[in-house]
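--- STAGE predict ---
source: upstream dedup step, 1 unique chain passed
mode: sequence only
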Amino acid sequence: MTILNRVIEFLKTLFRISPRNEGRVELAIVRIAIALLLANNFLFDVRPVVESQRGLLGDAVTNQSIEVLDGLTFFFKYDYDEQPHPEGMTSLWGVRNLWGLLPESKVLPINIPLQFLADPEIFSGGGTHVSEWPFMKLLFAVMLVFFCFGVSPVVSCGYIAFIVIAVGSLRNSQGNTHHGTQIVAMAVLGHWLGYIWYAWRQRSWKGAVTMATQASQRTSFFAAQQMAAAAYVVAGATKLLRSGFAWFSESPNIAIQVLKIGNQHYYGDGDKAPFDHAQKVAAVISAYPHITQLMLGVGLFAELLAFFALYNKKLGLTVGLSLVAMHLFVGYLMQLTFPLNNFILLFYFIPLPFALSRVFTLRSKSGNC
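--- STAGE serialize ---
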């Protein structure tokens, strides 16, 4: 086989429609992980529970656990009664303008009001007891359970995706658009689209509307992987489109942004530690600009090549670890954390679910001996 044929076969395999052969336990671990993440954000806050066990856990374990939960709790407060700067799902103008269907001067903004999600009597309210939850919140809890057990996945995933994207859009419509929750929303949306795609290919709603089959769950998981990979590829491509080669040649100028963030922390809350850290990092960047160019350049290539994670578990591990390393490096430079991105990488790229499924399988076999 010639090199060209090998490349063609590789690309065919890489961009295949059919997913890999993930096992039932592996797929279940992913669904449960996503469900727990969303439950912690929309249904109940686990942090007070952990804090109440400080005497049992100890200060070190409690503080570390709360710090991790702080990073993973991203949607819990969304008590907005207006959307002054419509973004995402709240603005059909954004969608139409994105595709350029009409000149901007001819496009009328069509805003979808989502403030009802912040109404305690509709979705955001309720205490720790299930009986206190409003209907839409209770329905969200039921849909999470359905999602875990594969019950009517098109319906359950569709409702979950709507809530996640709608609340994210409502938050972004307050004037401070950010992409911190984007990758979680894309993964959930990918699961839903995967079930729809499976039903369309099979010309049957079996496995999508009734009970999910292992084949439909694999397709859903693979679609979520593609969405997560696309988030990184688009991020890398955007950097090149907006800045071109300057992303490499002028990357040492990031020292200025590092100092700005340090000053922001210091003048915002009076904490001098981030300010001192920024001073040290900026000095190192200025002293070793080529190392900065190399490290940021490697991170950019890791984003652009994220789609290689779709090929197999080994490449998924390589790409996943590379992206986690990029997040840790950027986090050290900019004092920014990416817990949600690392969470998705851990369960969709790095084969942690596969490793856990193997452990559970071996334990069950040894228990039967």
